[in-house]
Write a structure and sequence with these properties.
With 166 residues, the protein is α+β, with helices and mostly antiparallel strands. The protein has five helices and four strands, in the order E-E-H-E-E-H-H-H-H. A four-stranded antiparallel β-sheet has the order 2-1-3-4.
Amino acid sequence: MEQQWYVMVGENDQRGPLSEAEVNELIESRQASAADYCWTEGFEGWAPLQQVPTFAEALRKATSAAQPPPGPTSAGQTWSTIKSSLDRGKRGAARKVKIAKLKMRISQLRKNRDRLCTALGTELYRRREEIELDEDLQDYIKSIDQCDDEIAGVEREIAEIEAETE
């Protein structure tokens, strides 16, 4: 009876039982690669296809066939792909830095707001519409309201940045 093989393609696509020829076909059609795993009776556990001598020839053929011919077009395409990827990463990193700075600004504004509320008195601030306050206390309330407005503006800015797409 022919040896039966099982192949794990990717992270969760288990195939088998397969014959040796069927596994070779998977490799040659590039449905399975050297990084994928296989198992058969007698193995202690799953092994990378590249470590199984039975499939060395099929892997060699698939790898050599997958190499593009050298030339200026493929090198140019490779460079443009790499550059594009780097640019996307750079823009993403810049957005993350900007968002982090904005979140720090919100934190500072909230601390300032809390300090102002403490100085004014939370109950007095809550009832500010109901009672007559002297000018100094009204200045505290204006400052607290400005903090609230700035916090809302920064939160909107963060939401806009996070909503940006490539």
